[in-house]
Amino acid sequence: MNKILLTGHNGFLGQYICQRARQKNIQIIGVSRTINPELQVTELQLDLSKDNFINQLNGHTFDGIVHLAANGNIQDCEENAAESQKINVQASRLLAETAMQREIPMVFTSSDQVFDGSKGSYSPSDKAQPLNQYGMQKLKAEEEIIQVYPAAVVCRMPLMIGSLGGYERALKEKLKLAKPQLLFTDEVRSVLEAKDAAKLIIEALDWDGGVYHLPGPVDLNRYELGLILATKYGLDLNLIQAGKQTDINLSVQRPKNATMVK
Known about the structure:
By secondary structure, the chain is an alpha/beta fold. 34% of the residues lie in helices and 21% in strands.
């Protein structure tokens, strides 16, 4: 693998994949709405919610596709489902068609949110039953990608942590401002370091087509994870407050136990 088209390269996981690719001497063509010269990759500033983005890839050569880009804002997906579906489903299918036409490997990152969280320890063969629009759109994208291009690899991702962004950075910044954080004890996720996820996703370009789970080595509830991250940065543990989903009137349903096994 010499050159990868990487959508969402400027996002949380994308930055780790760019780092890993450099270590492996793999060239990246990054596709995002915004550019980041610090990543030191070839960048295409494209909007994947627009139908014509796929035509703008003509003339660019690459021998693999890693599709990370998505609208991952669960609230926004619920309120603007038609718009979020354009990037979460439509763009995913178009990229699968491109991979099929070029006969190159493709990896798509899905989510543990395709499960309803009623039992946990989900295997790839367990039935997916999403509770929210984001999960529904991720599942729909999985199905359309595999239908279009059975050789594609779907990686269902757990909650990821890492200092470059995402949940970890957001929690850190709030705690640094001395803002108390109510974290659920009844929401359990498999937790994976983003740097480890990046390594696996690049390796997945050589896997057989199908659906895979990439769980982390430990399952933690949000409260436990919050304490670990606060300790990591030497921040006030008293700001981490235990709560339950059942105590809060959540506007969007979220799975309680979305833990996964391979």
